[in-house]
Design a protein that fits this description.
2 copies of one chain form a homodimer.
Chain A: H1 7-24, E1 28-31, H2 34-41, E2 53-57, E3 64-68, H3 72-78, E4 86-89, H4 101-111, E5 118-121, H5 130-139, E6 144-147, H6 151-156, H7 161-183, H8 191-204, E7 243-252, E8 255-265, H9 270-289, H10 296-308, E9 319-322, E10 331-336, E11 350-353, E12 357-358, E13 363-364, E14 368-372, E15 377-379, E16 388-390, H11 397-400
Chain lengths: 402, 402
């Protein structure tokens, strides 16, 4: 298998990671976040549902991959690290009430003389459970544990040109998925029918670039369910006058470009008609203010002032840094666009700006993913920044049944 | 929104959960596994990428849902619990280096007089991080924490008739996804093209039943990558003579029926031809041995003896209990079909029996999902139990480009 990045890029990433380890006094870093594992080693497989990790040792040139034995072939195939640094634990450790993979991993660390060092762990990561930490502490009594949450994520926040190129490919896929998804929305069509169209486009990709699975499924609430942002599709059939929120991401080699739009099946409600220009104005105000040196908190302030003129407030964050990830989230867990976030914008940072508003019985999402350039913001996708109105006379469900 | 189960079924589930709590001396159970949250409350949304939980208090009739404020509408819409038991935390708790949702949740628990009780937590669950546990312990110094891993999962292991009905619908979706996926495999077709066809079918479902997203994406290694089980699709184009492993699940209202087959593009290799009847015989030997009262360990023994005749050994487990779940796993994390597992089979237990074999440069998977009946095993899907051979003369990639 061909690595998605030049070997030198992986070496640079590892170097930057070790620099941060040194700053934090970490000698051995146990990486359990699959995106961080991928970022440093190339490892790419749906094996994160069992315990596994990449071990970065400050004074060793190569990381170790430790995971389930049956996944070791995958680690050899998808990473740049030497085969002898790929270690598998026997299958009886998997989802057992007796054995735990961290017991095995702790033994390996002791055997290679790392059991009494300063060990960094990603404390608030889906793939480092409370039990994993307890077992490590129990079996490595002489190690000093330090929180390394988001240590590697912090290295990831500025993208390389190759990463930006992958996001541009993801953007082509996002556009095409949005176009076909919106086209499929019609009276009597079901949410699941539209989700199927979107998935087909997302996964097939283009003739040049195959699509990858996004870390979040397309979110597709319709009708009153647009009042809540994270409902997935159901069998509900669209009615005339429904609003439908479509939030999706194109994904290429695990790099995401999210895109959200709100669609009206026929004549939009008065509420939607009056809120739309406020959201679009706020979105454009933020985008035109972006420049290196500004903070994420200042971006939020631009938005807040823009919507305040219309008597609107937003409780939740306005967006987040985005790029490489695995389920259950495509957000990077670094910078958030919200009050008080002091992250300073730099060229090749990438954000999903999603000023969603959710009220008691309806909601709206119109979003953009952008790159910070030397002078401003560059959008990844080209899709009308507006409420999308589907003419119910021109569409019928019978066209769509396949 | 209509609940997928009768309210009485939710009450039964809660009662069985409280019985187990009592046996373990747990007074307050903090449920963070999204499948367990769904099982007891109906909650269904892609919001598990932020901290959230269902709180079951032994002497209170209703659970509490505590999560992100913007998801509270979703909790009100999808659950049977009263609106006043749905509590949201402000957005500044989300993915922050300063605030943690468990601080908020601990305060709520203290306010309602639960801060000094025996508190059960799901220690080895993706959605209960090491940090979540540390914060809870810090803010609830008078609570006694107990491991409640798989407590609710244990209740889930025997399915109700309604759950079985949902799995039957998932099975129709799995069959159709496998048929269309296999049909799309051709010389020059890409792995991503086949994955797109599968996804389309899985999500669209049938005219009667819309599909839901499976908790694992279709796994689709081809060529030498069949030697490793968890690689996802790539842009690789199929070549004549390739083997392709297709592992997928139909999903309906979060209930899964997995199905795996191995496909040969044209004439299969001699290796594949000779291993296939051994796997099929072993699979059928196990299926015909299944009956209530047998243990999971005994199922594995039947398989081991069957393949031993041919000089084959399998290192990894043979299958697992399956049903309701959320990413990243469709397995239930209760019984495994492997040596030493003492789970006793009972009617309406459901398993994915997947005797996959992976060698240095190829592999094979032919699986079945079955229900334990009063007397034996009933398969969910009807699909030939064999190596599927695609005739490369009858198929061309140009037919498939849409």
């Amino acid at each position: 298998m061909v690595l998605p990045f030049d070997i030198l890029e992986y070496h640079e990433r590892l170097k930057a990671t070790k620099q941060r380890m040194e700053e934090k006094g970490i000698e051995v870093l146990l990486i359990t976040d699959p995106a961080n594992m991928n970022y440093l080693s190339g490892y790419d497989a749906w094996s994160f549902y069992v315990h596994q990790m990449l071990v970065v040792i400050i004074d060793e040139p190569q990381p170790l991959w430790i995971g389930r034995f049956q996944d070791t072939n995958g680690a050899k195939v998808t990473t740049w690290i030497y085969d002898e640094n790929v270690i598998g634990y026997p299958d009886y450790y998997v989802q057992s009430a007796v054995y735990h993979p961290m017991d095995f991993i702790a033994d390996i660390l002791k055997q290679i003389g790392q059991g009494n060092r300063n060990v960094g762990v990603e404390m608030d990561n889906y793939y480092f459970s409370a039990m994993a930490y307890e077992r490590l502490k129990q079996h490595l009594p002489n190690a000093a544990f330090k929180d390394a949450s988001a240590l590697v994520n912090g290295v990831r926040i500025i993208k390389s040109d190759q990463e930006i190129e992958y996001m541009r490919r993801a953007a082509r896929i996002a556009e095409q998925a949005m176009v076909k998804g919106v086209e499929s929305i019609c009276i009597g069509g079901r949410e699941c029918d539209t989700a199927a169209e979107i998935y087909y486009q997302m996964v097939k990709g283009t003739p040049e670039y195959g699509g990858d699975y996004p870390s979040i499924v397309p979110l597709l609430p319709s009708g009153e369910n647009t009042s809540t942002p994270h409902l997935t599709w159901t069998e509900r059939a669209f009615l005339e006058g429904d609003a439908v929120i479509v939030e999706l991401a194109g994904c290429y080699k695990r790099y995401h470009v999210p895109l959200a739009r709100t669609v009206s099946v026929g004549q939009p409600s008065e509420q939607l008609q009056s809120i739309t220009p406020i959201v679009v104005e706020g979105l454009q105000d933020v985008l035109s203010s972006v420049k290196p040196g500004m903070t994420c908190g200042e971006m939020e302030e631009v938005w807040r002032n823009s919507i305040k003129k219309h008597g609107i407030e937003k409780e939740s964050r306005l967006g987040y840094s985005v790029g490489l990830n695995y389920p259950p989230d495509w957000g990077e867990h670094t910078a958030s666009i919200r009050m008080g976030d002091s992250t300073v914008l730099q060229p090749n940072m990438t954000f999903h700006l999603i000023p969603g508003l959710w009220f008691d019985n309806y909601g709206i999402e119109i979003s953009e993913t952008f790159r910070v350039t030397e002078t401003g913001a560059e959008l990844f996708t080209q899709y009308p920044q507006d409420l999308i109105v589907r003419d119910p006379l021109n569409i019928s469900p019978s066209d769509k049944i396949s």
